[in-house]
Write a structure and sequence with these properties.
The structure is a homotetramer of 337-residue chains. With 337 residues, chain A is an alpha/beta fold. Chain A has 13 helices and 15 strands. In chain A, the strands form three sheets. Chain A has a seven-stranded mixed β-sheet, covered by helices on one side. Chain A has a six-stranded parallel β-sheet with strand order 3-2-1-4-5-6, with helices on both faces. In chain A, strands 13-14 form a two-stranded antiparallel sheet. The longest helix of chain A has 20 residues, at 307-326. At the A-D interface, strand 7, strand 8, strand 9 and strand 10 of A face strand 7, strand 8, strand 9 and strand 10 of D. Chains A, B, C, D: InterPro entries: Gfo/Idh/MocA-like_OxRdtase_N, GFO_IDH_MocA-like_dom, Myo_inos_IolG, NAD(P)-bd_dom_sf.
Chain lengths: 337, 337, 337, 337
């Protein structure tokens, strides 16, 4: 039985907690910590049989019973808490991004070096049924050599301007998932990219120094030409699709829907919108990533998404920002740290 | 060059004429006849290079130049003109049904007996790209032995009450196509059927002695269980689908549409309605059936839809009427003539 | 907190147990009983925090702590245990069918009469996301008056011959779900039906006195013409679809799949098969039906599928058997008890 | 009756000839010319009722009867024959591209200046049912302001190396259609583009100085971010799709297929491949573009695709070549002529 402490009980922290309690027999949540440990949270935890509820996450790190921690607190705390947790010899599952600055991620990597600890990063989309099916088919040679990769990733509504100001911007809070997905689907790193981006949805996003619509074309190390398109606002819901075209075929996915029901009438044939947002679309993937993390600990196997995956997506995100600023293609190798 | 005379220049007569003129190099329309040979029709024929325009179809039958006739006049004339045309040694393409009475069709069959003439019946749907693909796949064993056959056939709007009164009713003017389709798709005759029918759309249809909605379940001679569902009014357009389920798979078709365009918005994902009616959906099939008729003449090969196919659909239609009237399953062999 | 005892720990008993433990906060499993209470089951129960594991279900019925029981034992025990449970004033969730004999179901109905107890029957498909969406759209008038209803229900593989011999046959073990679905989708009872059935898959099924392929055409009390088609063996997996056609539109569903991935190559465009069988397809519906049962108890509301629903499906199934035996349409009112 | 002379009787010249003869009542083909006027072509023309068959296209230009010419000869002759035809006061339909050099297209534009002549360029895809539906929906505001445009355009097999050497390369023989489609779908010109291209299919194409796979990202003047992806070899057939995403919705198209038949079996659910190549996919569009050309002459209306459309696609193609060569984004305004 793997004993888990969860740091940060926001939306995603709660999801992981419930998934472990309800769906992962090999693990249990021993303690939780949140800077705002409200009565409501304590009551919720009690309902799950969790009694140790702290304000200070250090109580979790100091608890000898606890084998692993989940870092679900705000982004700026990911790297420092990772360092402390590693020091305390805890396995770590850290939400993405590890940090917005590369040198801080490098510190985490260095800290891990002589430790035999698992460190998984929360790129949950790798565990989505659709994308996993594509990755497996590509790996099994179903399409031969990949030539063209297309990822569509559009949110149903923009985040708050306050979030935009601290998130690291579109490339580091949203596209970062797509960078990881590109690497995952064709099993190759990015070599170079070129970004077009603009403010087409909300001028406030522009004033906050960010773009809300972007097209990122990339050359992968294995020769695949890739393109990601992003929008902060798809009125029809969360649009999450991928297409991989290769020398002997093509794989495509479409969006998940609440039901397959279709209505034919005088207006046409109407099917449902995609599931609204990531909580609806990716709920199963959160369960699956956690299950894999626990298995990696129990069986002492490599984690499916490691610290280098966390590092690389941030570096690609920085290259994307540079490309947009300088209006030119940028090689990933240009990003120094 | 096969020389054709066309008898009856209504909607379908015009379609056949233009198809022969424009798309069938091996045939030409030498003459046309219509009881109402208007100036407008004469002008239309002139534009197609057709100069012989008669009121009396007998002029066509008496023309030694003419090899074959198309009988596109009203249903009650099909059998008598067929008989005269056969006597005049013309090949015949006759629109369905040959007649509403079996003994009159038998006369046509008898007349054909010692003649080496082609006689094709206008079951155009056999030449539709979707149904042809299903038939071929079934014939090629793609689904093993057929077990269940489902045909959906719904018109976008009911015909006029005047038409309902003389058409022979739902089973002989509309379902007759589906009876032929059932025989075609699983390559077997009907053994027994049971009909449920009702007036759900327009009371006037009921007053005219017909139903407007029906469900016909059939047992085919090869053991396939089959069901046809009919409606005189599908608000979303012409609904023409088939499904054949067998021991090693299933074949399905969907409706044709004007375009593949789909609109995703806050209401959902909207695609187009099916093509409106038979002229839109089956235009290619009219061309194809005519091409096959001409080829059968040129190459002296059997026609793809013969006089017995015409007979059998009418007999099945009569069995359907009997089943509805008597509220019991009826064997095809019960229909005497 | 509703306290539950579960009687019969086979496949479905385990599913309900785990669903209550993991997903229904308002209920807990207090005790389980199974005639074969193995060490393996005891260990599994222990992992779920269930300590009271009995061989004799009467210990559950005698336990004052327990509010409700789930009857998941073999079909022949459903009615007698129901009676005992009602006598012991337990709410009951009973797997379908309540019994294969109508008079035994009547005893259960009578026993319930002066008790204020909930009695829900396990027609889980009503809670499936696709069928629920159709039912809601029909109820909301999206298609106007329903005219034609089509239900496709095909299993991926036949059950064992031993099961066929005791199950009550195709109509009472398999089609019973579809009878209930027909009543649910158009919110109307069945008036009359006519059955065609045959042995097309496995002669052993025929020797056991049953059919393996059937087409059931029905007239619903609200005038809808309905057809159900069944097969014991669809090589491509569990085929569970419905179509409701009405005066102002049509609703259709398609099968659920493991992923939306599609592979285009020289053979064509290949998408996945339907989910394999009911455990895969209907897992969410089992959770949902249980949640509704618990809510009905907690809020003292009517159950969504009551004892009369259980009764009616059995009566329809008996009418279906009669129709097949006698080769004629049978009115539901002909079934006496 | 518009009298047409057709110059160049290759594959596309024949298609236009037959379309005019069979499907466009307002026009007739008076004469044809081809540098290789074989007996086979003469016989084919005779079958269509065309008697004037020349080796020298100047005979057509000198024929006072003839109102309009179609230039379907090899690319390098398009501009010079256009100039001669304009001088001879013929309306012109010219296959794309007008020329591979901008200054030669400018000569044609200048020659047209004081003439009241129609000059249409053969961008047939604008007349495709799918793309036309998208254009109309975008124009009607169905998706609000366009933000992202994606065009997929992949051939089933590469052309001969000989063709690659003279065609102007991928961007001028293949992508040129997609550049025009981008301008058409969002009704805006291209401002800037960036190209990634590589030789992933056939090294011989690389040796001939071309690429066979490309990703072109563009900024349109109206702010839309656009991407075109091209491959010379899609093993599953001709892949021609578009997606336009905007502030209030998204439009997508899928490929046309020979039939809607689908086969479900143990391997999955198999539907047909896209239609093989442009002759299959775009046959209707060739008919439609010709019909529009004739209507423009008859009604003295603007042609739907004019000489400037022909010019602009070539300029964009040159910008694409420059971007690939120089590895940087290129503004369309950089292309001087």
């Amino acid at each position: 039985m793997v004993k888990i402490g969860i740091i940060g009980i926001g939306r995603i922290g709660k999801i992981h907690t419930e998934n472990i309690c309800y769906n992962i027999p090999k693990a249990e949540v021993t303690a939780i910590a949140d800077i705002n440990m409200t009565d409501k949270v304590i009551k919720w935890a009690d309902g799950l049989g969790i009694n140790r509820c702290y304000k200070d996450y250090r109580k979790i790190l100091g608890d000898k019973d606890i084998d692993a921690v989940l870092i679900c607190s705000s982004t700026n705390t990911h790297a420092p808490i990772s360092l402390e947790a590693i020091k305390a010899s805890k396995h770590v599952f850290c939400e993405k991004p590890i940090d917005l600055e590369v040198h801080k991620i490098m510190e985490v990597i260095n800290a891990l070096e002589e430790k035999n600890l698992k460190y998984q990063v929360g790129f949950n989309r790798r565990f989505d049924h659709n994308f996993k099916a594509v990755r497996e088919a590509v790996s099994n040679g179903k399409i031969g050599d990949p030539h063209i990769l297309k990822i569509t990733s559009r949110d149903p509504a923009p985040p708050s301007i306050d979030y935009v100001k601290v998130s690291g911007g579109l490339f580091l809070d949203m596209t970062i998932h797509d960078f990881d997905m590109a690497r995952y689907l064709v099993n190759s790193d990015v070599e170079e990219l070129y970004v077009q981006g603009d403010v087409l949805i909300d001028e406030e996003i522009g004033k906050a120094g960010d773009v809300d619509t972007a097209l990122i074309s990339m050359k992968m190390e294995n020769g695949t030409l890739a393109v990601i398109d992003n929008s902060r606002k798809a009125v029809y819901g969360y649009d999450q699709r991928a297409e991989v075209f290769g020398s002997s075929g093509m794989l495509t996915t479409s969006n998940d829907k609440q039901s397959t029901a279709m209505l034919s009438n005088e207006q046409g044939v109407l099917s449902e919108k995609p599931l609204y947002f990531f909580l609806e679309r990716y709920m199963d993937s959160f369960r699956e990533e956690m299950s894999c993390f626990i298995n990696a600990i129990v069986n002492d196997e490599p984690v499916p998404v490691g610290v280098y995956d966390g590092l690389k997506s941030v570096i690609i995100g920085m290259a994307a920002k540079k490309s947009l600023e300088e209006g030119r293609p940028v090689k990933i190798s240009e990003i120094k740290f």
